[in-house]
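Hey, I was hoping to borrow your eyes for a little while. A protein chain has come my way and I'm curious about its shape. Take your time with it, there's no hurry, and the full record follows here:
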Amino acid sequence: MQHLVRGCFRGEGYRFATGAFDIARACGWERVARLGSNENPYPPSPLAFARATEALASANRYPDERMGSLVEALEGAFGDYAFVTGAGMDGIIETVIRALIDHGDRVAISTPTFSFYGIATRAQGGILHPVPRNADFTIDGSRIVEESRDAKITFLCTPNNPTGNATPPGVIEEICEEIEGMLFLDNAYVEFSGIDYMPLVRRFDNLIIGRTFSKAYALAGLRVGFACVPAWFEPVFRRAQTPFALNAVSAAAAMGALADTDHVRRIVDHVTAWRKRFAEEIPFPVLPSDANFVLIDVAPMKGDEAVEALARRGVVVRSAAGFPQLGDHYIRVSIGDDWENERFLQETGSL
């Protein structure tokens, strides 16, 4: 029955870092440094635990389909914007594409970047149009505009995964002013950058900003995403969304995490300090990063070779070979707990 599978799902899908973890365990490492998935190494805020535990008591009921309490909490934290929620950033991306893309519509994607934009575009029947970044992985706003003229949606990640660099708000303004379609700005790592792009939504009705609770808020396992959208797009998003996409326990945890600003600040401070140490102490070129990870050029080694070598030493990192237009000599390394980072520095020094 394999012939029934759509062509876009017959090849490789999203690429996980589990292979390196399996190598580490096979080599006898019980305590593995997990630096391959851009996770937060620390547990969620106690307030998140408390709110989630309370919400379990009513898990026999469907949640509020509009997530009104969470939306109110987002408005209290970020301002009087139109917010929508979903099952992680992936759920937000899928719903936006579902709402806007018909078969054959063009979608521009600034590359190298997060592969799920392309997976979701192909699944909806859209035509993928990669727009390569500059040699130093910065964005040329005029090129994005030119390449996006016939695109219904343009995807731009800032800070970008996997390169780590952020795009200045002025460049985002230039793009929004000139393109005819929508710009989806993926801000999954924005808390680590110190940049606030959200005020731009008040100026441009073609800008959507996607955010997540998976990184700075330490809720990756609960899959909570949200987006700041133009007012006109909010009802469109809700019509296209899977019913009850976000569960009540995850939403309650997100509200608790949102309220604990001290917890988030400690995590951001931890990432900032270690990002500096990585740049100074890793014996390979480290690209400037505004995220909770760094991209490292391990040439003349291949990225896959470095990943396997580190996995055999109990350290899991991500090869960037699977990111189109990037090259096969990079690895992406998340900022982990202190002991994980120390082990990585020690083992990288002997590569």
About this structure: The chain has 13 helices and twelve strands.
